[in-house]
Amino acid sequence: MTNEEKLHLITMNLEETLTVDELKQLIESGKPLKHYIGYEVSGKVHLGAVSAMLKIRDLQMAGVETNVFIADWHTWLNKKLDGTLETAKRMAVEYFQEALKAAGLVAGADPEKINFILGSDLYHNNPDYWAEVMRVAKATTVSRMMRTTAIMGRREEEVTDTAMLIYPAMQAADIFVLGVNIAHAGMDQRKVHVVARDAAEELGREKPITIHFSLLQGLLKPDIWPLPTDNREGAITAMKMSKSKPDSAVFIHDTPEEIRRKLNNAFAPEGETGFNPVLDWTKHLIFYDPDTTLTVKRPEKFGGDVTYTSYTDLENDYKKRELHPQDLKTAVADWLIEKLEPARKYFEDPKRKAALEEIEKLTAK
Fold first, then answer.
1. Whether pLDDT at 148 is above 90
2. Mean per-residue pLDDT for 78-93?
3. Nearest C-alpha neighbor of 184 from the set 354, 314, 13
4. CA 106, CA 101: separation in Å to the nearest integer?
5. In this structure, are strands 294-296 and 306-308 parallel, antiparallel, or unpaired?
6. Fewer CB atoms near the end CB (10 Å): N or C, the chain?
């Protein structure tokens, strides 16, 4: 594989790469490429993990070492599940790691080629790690660290204890101590990646390349509609899927009936292409690969079946109201039911099923 082909695989379908020139130089240097993405154990795994695993598949094809960091300490700091480190650690291994493997199967990545790293294992008896946390904290102002806590899914006024301020410094230190040169996340993690890049310069560390994918929009109608056009970041946050709002997301082990119900009830205004979750999923999941086709089945009186070979054509028809929202919802539901079959089968295993049931209890409102 040529360097140009590697560069294309790593950067395709991303929202942002910081920076493409730096990545090109890294590839051309011949250094081993080492990737990382980190996850809190905050609830059931949804399609956002499939989106991430699609990129992990690309990275594996490009010869990159792929690492998934399961952040049980960050889960504890962020007061998720029952608020204890013991539960976060157990669910990280029994449920979350297994769910991410299932998402990898769905996306076509090889779970056996992913190194799963538990936060507790990295931090245990590792004074060098905690020294790195201190170095990052010393290289970052309090006000900037406070702004960066948005990566936790919290507003600044929700940061109620000092431990939460340590969270971003730990996330940046994870990158340095793991020795990765490609940090991967959704756009919601951009701020902490920029902190890590800036701290790397000040501390004499290798500056990580950061690659960011688009957050999938949630299926529910936002509280404010139309969304403000002058605040893109706020609009994206308002529309993203949320584990705390189960009907905003499709989870990887949802039943076909649950998938159909959620898609049937999804917010998908006719002719609206700017903020439309069903179109968003069609673009970022179904048409992730360039050779994709999607057949929308409909009665002859409504134009008969139509097959799309590009997202652009589908979006144009939707905008012109030649493709009805309900027809698209049905097609997307059918695609997801088939695509997620490996994950449903994976969780038929009694131990995995029991872990799923436990995390459902832990996150039930």
1. no
2. 96
3. 13
4. 9
5. antiparallel
6. C
Measured CA distances, 243 to 44, 249, 291 (Å): 7, 7, 31
**CA angle, residues 216, 188, 128, in degrees to nearest 5:** 130
What confidence tier does 232 reach under pLDDT thresholds 50, 70, 90? low
Which residue segment(s) compose the domain that 188 sits in? 3-213
Are 41 and 276 contacting, i.e. CB atoms less than 8 angstroms apart? no
Tell me the H-state helices in 139-274: 142-148, 162-178, 190-203, 232-239, 256-264
Please tell me the total count of domains within the chain. 2
Residues 42 and 175 in one domain: yes
Could you tell me the pLDDT band of residue 237, with boundaries at 50, 70 and 90? Answer: low
Domain assignment present for 349:
no
Give the pair of three-digit tokens for residue 97.
């790691």
**195 and 53 within one domain:** yes
Query: Does residue 224 fall inside a structural domain?
Result: no
Its pTM stands at 0.93
In a domain, 223, yes or no: no
Tally of CB atoms within 10 A around 186: 19
The answer to whether residue 345 sits within a structural domain is: no
